[in-house]
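Hi L., both proteins are below.
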Amino acid sequence: MAININWKPSPNYTAGRSGKKIIAIVNHQTAGQGPGALSWLCNPASKASAHYLIYRDGTVYQLVREKDTAWHAGGVNKPSWALYDGTNANRYTLGIEHECYPAVGGDGNLTEVQYQATLELHRQLIKTYAITVDRAHIIGHYQIDSVNRPNCPGKAFPWDRLMKGRKRCILIKQGFYFLIKIINNDIALNF
């Protein structure tokens, strides 16, 4: 599935990544509806941004170039993330906001079209940056700030489905054998 990404630049970012390599994707939920979140993340007064924002209708916006540091993870407070190295996590992560608006009942429960968009975006980012497909590398904001963001991206965020959906298989016949290749996990089996 190819996704259409709309460019809506935010002024809220730091150029470059201070020499850090992208190692993880941080998933978030918005505090409001998509248009309001988009406006807020592009407002200099907010001092916040993300690399991507995915609306409930599956519309995807890119706000900050991946080569630059978006301001999505904020302060660190009692992190549980095993890969946190004591420095600004924004520098070595990509941030994806999901329109969930918990104030009106959303709790990380993505619509089907929104889930498909986030799955495909994760696939593209994982492939581009060779990000390991596990819960140490595909995380929630709560793992960086467990005090102020304990439920971000929401209790209903589809972690298991997202991790399982990451594994796409190709069956290739080679002579009398078949090769099963699980894409992006670098696993190949001959039988």
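That was the first. Here is the second:
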Amino acid sequence: MKTPVQARSAYTVEAIFEATIQVLIQLGINQLTTTKVALRAGVSVGTLYQYFPNKNALLSAALERHLNMVVTAVEIACNAAKGQNVQVMATTLVSAYVDAKLSSPEASKALYAVATELGSADVVARITQRSQLALCDMLATSTDVKFDELRVVSYMLSTALVGPIQGLLHSDVPPAFAEQVKAQAILMTIAYLQQAGLNSASKTFSPAI
């Protein structure tokens, strides 16, 4: 259980993060300042600096928080789909990933600009590693398809999903279109996993001569 001080600190940090997203969406990364964020969060600049020493540290932390939210959704989905066939795995995974990315599209779009501006390769690499590990663990339990190269398959799968969803974030499309893209992404994932499994099986098949 958190102490009252810890609870207040967590509340303050959460308020600062939410204010950061709001200022990012409204003004963009170049116009964002720690003073504006503190004002929006209802705290003093000094209080903000107790947690984040400068603007870049604040933005990096906000980006990592957002990416953690997405990868946690992926990890939960992968864990839930263990021991299922690839159709269930693909549907569960893609739905969780797309829903997490599009739950707050403006925030996702704004933080994508942060990742580009700050060059947050280390943060992205850590999150990507977590995502691909969760995929490997899930795919290893598939009931209908077996994979020889789990790391390669998980890499291809995770990177293949990024492009279409990133495109949605930068396009003004209606919700119905986004749902269609999700459905197509599920079909794409099922087809890839089934074919990757067939390819794995063919490498171990030795025809009689």
